[in-house]
Every structure is written in structure tokens, then in C-alpha cells.
Amino acid sequence: MRADRQAEQTSYRGVTRAGIFLGLGLGGFFDGIVLHQILQWHHMVTERYPVTSIENLQINTVGDGLFHALTYVFTATGIFLLWRTLQGQHRPLPVRVLLGAMLMGWGLFNLVEGLINHHLLQIHHVRSGPNEMAWDVAFLAWGAAMLMIGWLVNRPHPKPLSQRRGA
Fold it and tell me: Using CA atoms, how far apart are residues 102 and 24, in angstroms rounded to an integer?
């Protein structure tokens, strides 16, 4: 039983790590695709280079591209870590472990990106103009909520899988 419990904890940690990277990637892709491209509320460096000229639009497009490249690396890292963790697994972990970790990663993305880019560096805001501070704070609150909910969902179960009802 002890070896089963240890293997489950190792799998849990590996899936959690992978899920956090996947959440970072998904959070970044959501931000870049929805806020940058579809809604066009901001680009990566719109506060320093307002999109008022072709040159500034090109600078912002490169910034957005570098941002998307980073989110791609996060996502690819998460997929690799998940694949590596699940190799040889005979007993799957509950889906809540991965989903909770992904929520934690997405929430972490919002908090880090929001604090650094919106507040410290002020290179862009969620939505510039009236109420931009409210949009930035709401982005942080959304991130904090996802991080907390993800942590609650992801927490390990006190009993090993083999001792749970229906396992």
C-alpha cells in the first residue's frame, strides 16, 4: 500500500506541475486571442506605443507575437510534463487534479501578467480609457479567484485511490 500511495503522490505532483504550465499557456492564449485580437482592447505595449501609426502597430504586433511564443512554450512544456508523468500509469488520477492545476496556472498567469504589465511596468491595461483601473483590478480578482478555486479543486484526497469507494 505504501508504494501505491507514493506512486500516486508522485503522479499527483507531476500532473499538477503539468496542469499549471497548461493553465499558464491557456491563460496567455485567452488573453492574446480574445483581448488582443478579437476585442482589440490592448496589445502588448500599447501604453508606450499607442496604435496611432503603422510603425507602432508593427511594434505591438511583434510584442504580441513574442507573447504568444511564450504562451506556446508554456503549453508545450505542460503537454510534455503531462505525457512524461502519465507514462506507465495504470491507474488514472481524478480529472479534478488536472483541471484544478490548470485553473491555478491560469490564475497565476493573470496575477503575474496583471501585476507586472498592468501595474508595475504599465505597458498596457486590460482596457485603456475610462475605468481602466477597474478593468485591471477585475483582471487580478479573476486571477486570484481562479487560483484559489483551482487550489481547492486540486488538493489531494486524504485516502489513496485504492482505499476510496468505487476505486
Answer: 7
Whose CA is closest to 94, among 159, 1, 149?
A: 159
| Joined grid coordinates for residue 71 | 504562451
State the cell numbers at 115: 501585476
Helix or strand (DSSP H, E) at 42: none
How far apart CA 25 and CA 19 sit, in angstroms, is 10
| Residue 84 contacts residue 91 (beta carbons within 8 Å) | no
Whole-model pTM?
Answer: 0.85
Give the CA count within 13 Å in the CB-facing half-sphere of 6: 3
Angle at 61 between CA 55 and CA 62, to 5 degrees: 95
Cβ atoms within 10 Å, residue 100? 23
pLDDT tens-place string over residues 52-99: 999 999 999 999 999 999 999 999 999 999 999 988 776 777 899 999
